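Case study 2.
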Amino acid sequence: MATPRVGILPSADRQAIFEAARKLKLNPYEFGAFLSLEAGANMDPNIQGGAGGRHYGLIQFGPGEQQRYLDPAKKGQYTRAEQIPAVLRYFEDRGYKPGMGIERAYATVLGGNPNVSLNAKDSFGTSVAGVASRFKPGGDLYKNAQRVLGDDPGFVSVAAQPAQQQTKTLAGQDPLLIEMANRIFSPILTPKSQSSSLPGLLKLFGSIGQ
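Prediction:
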């Protein structure tokens, strides 16, 4: 069995980012890629940026958002784990729903809500559509997130699991989705073909509605 990669961040910070991705129903490396774009390669929770250097933190909170979501006494001293709850509150308040996907998550930050045009540009000319490929597997920011975060501490390789457990992993651990996948796919696949066909079918099934 391969030794898990532990990444370069403190354990509590890594765990908080993975857990936030699960709550938002995002691929943790896509979420990490987004944080890498906003807060630098190592996802610095104390980074200053934006126009006039007035934005701050993991998702570059604006001045108003800093007052609402962050503790001024901790500014400059936040850990990633300490700031992640503020990130989650921001997403909830702005209307992002878990499962909307990384493009809509980034739109929530870039444009203030998840429903803005993916082609809309900020003051620096950045648009969701223009950077989305960097968040996806193979993109530079996705690869950076893999480097920084290492392996998901809650992840178990699909190849090492029996077919029934593969259903749970590939369906995103949504109980309803798992049950539906089992009922639909298991009767039509032979035990021999489950190991090769079931993962691909479940990936397709799990993507419906995202």
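Residues 191-207 form the longest helix (17 residues).
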